Amino acid sequence: MHDHVHHRRGSGHLRPLVWGLVITFAFAMVEAVGGWLSGSLALLGDAGHMATDSLALALGAVAALLAQRPADRELSFGWGRAEVLAAIVNAVFMLLIIAGITYAAINRLRDPQPVQGGVVMVIAAIGLLVNVLVAWALHRGEQTLNIRGALLHVMGDLLGSVAALVAGAVIYFTGWTPIDPLLSLLICILILISSLRLLRDAVDVLMERVPRELSLPVVGETMAAVEGVRSVHDLHIWRLDSSTISLSAHIVVDDLQAWPGVLERLRETLIKRFAIEHITLQPEPIQLTVIG
């Protein structure tokens, strides 16, 4: 006998992704032209970030649409992990961008190029406002891995705009051009940390790892302490998608007739203590062994 308690959350959040896509792609073109005219690597790098952000946001929007589709005969858990796959693609893509910008920055340090600081400052300031707007729109929604992946790209752009703005000001007032590639390298390091963290979290979901904020022994001990429960075994906890934690277990009870009340107490405990709402529990009677 199995008892299931399922509370599936919706996770589309399509509108902020679409708005972010339109705004980001439009300004990426502006920055690309400005970076080419001014000779700024930081500005060109930021334009590259924004162009790839457009792809990331488009990928996120498609994944969000898929995640809204109901379960079917082939995908009995639904399409929620499409957002996790999108997050992995975005994280890997961001690592490739970091590698490319790092290579270009090192070459620029070896062979400095003239940069028009004034043009860089103006375009970077506008880019900063655009990125703040898009980041705000994404941050307002539920922080699924998909949204986090898109937000990672946008935050990379935001930091890139800050770097370009600072580099433009330094070059405009002092003429010291190495600040441009140096700040680009600094931003790459900051984005690398976030990219690796996102990739780790997405892989955790695919590997069905126990969520990092939970402890399997602690959850098991808490369940075993519920009135009417003799013991808990075959306990498994994993993320079904980026927003839903699932749990399954076998529950040994003194009296199967009392199972409905025990189930309700377990359900309330798991929801209140650990925010676990996708629950599958199997009751088992105490096995008595008679030695003859």
Structural account:
This protein is α+β, with helices and mostly antiparallel strands and 292 residues long. It has 8 helices and 4 strands. The two termini are 31 Å apart.
Describe this protein with a few key phrases:
292 residues; alpha+beta; 4 strands
Neighbour order of strands in the largest sheet: 1-4-3-2
Structural class by SSE content: alpha+beta
How much of the sequence is in beta strands?
5-15%
Tertiary shape: elongated
The parts where pLDDT drops under 50 for at least 5 residues are 5-12, 288-292
Q: Which SSEs are present, and which pair or pack?
A:
Layout: E1 3-5, H1 14-38, H2 41-67, H3 82-110, H4 117-139, H5 145-174, H6 179-206, H7 216-224, E2 229-239, E3 245-253, H8 259-274, E4 278-285
Helix pairs in contact: 1-2, 1-4, 2-3, 2-5, 3-5, 3-6, 4-5, 5-6
Explain briefly what this protein structure is:
It is built from eight helices and four strands. With 292 residues, it is an alpha+beta fold. A four-stranded mixed beta sheet has the order 1-4-3-2.
